[in-house]
User: What shape does this take?
Amino acid sequence: MLLDSESKKWLADHCGAGIKFDEPMSKHTSLQVGGPAEAYFVPGNIEALKSLINWAWQKDIPYLIVGDGTNLLVKDSGIKGIVIALTKCLQAITKTDNEQEEVVVTAMAGVRMQALCRFALEHGLAGLNFALGIPGTVGGGIMMNAGTAYSWIENVLEAVTVLLPNGQIQEITRDRLKFSYRNLSLNMGLNQEFQAHPVIIDGSFCLHPADPVKLKAEAKKILKMRIKRQPIGYPSAGCFFKNPADGKTAGQLIDLAGLKGKAIGGAEVSSKHANFLVNTGQATAADFLALMEFVHETVLKMFDIDLESEVKIVGA
Assistant: This one.
């Protein structure tokens, strides 16, 4: 336990109905597994978020920022400290035209990726159709440099705004953002004191006006392909492993290893898409971790390829 009685009293007094103690994370992850968070907070506005972040920083209490929990595997032992969900307080989307036939759309971190994609479609803006069908929030999509075979966040992201634990708001422009596969580092744009603590407030995306009819036709095609290829009906966290830099994809390797349908407890390798590990009912985080390890070791032994988890594994 990291939260003593005095800390819990402060949280209860200052966070009101937005705070829950010993909250099961299985309620807040797409895999529907995970032990309790010591404290789980859904701030109603940015001032409440600022207050809590500053207090936790001064008290040296760890906090984990989450959105929809769509790329998160929480261990059965739960999470020490405070989990902060941004899905309520950071919800605005705005757009600004400029003289170069570009449109900058700014979406706050709690906005769901699909809401941002719909906004772009409704306004006839090209550049985000690649993200159609990607679950989760804008904040998570930015931090993961979310992408598909069509494109990546890094190709449209112009800047991010972050909240620092001392309460300052800072913009980090594209030239100070370091992208890599399924990752974004903000450290180049931050003072070393705050490099472990920034909270993304929003992201600005550079889009282009396009024919709305063609855009919507493209969107329909992309969504149809995702539905055709990916399992629907069982809880999952999307693709579980990162694709190797060269050669076959993680899904192809797992399939070639004959692991489709392999199950441990309630966790199973999807028979539709081998890079999806699904919860067939009553799975635990331990089931997923054991299945992940089995898949990893099997692929390593058969192909000498060291698959790396794409899903973020957190917990005590």
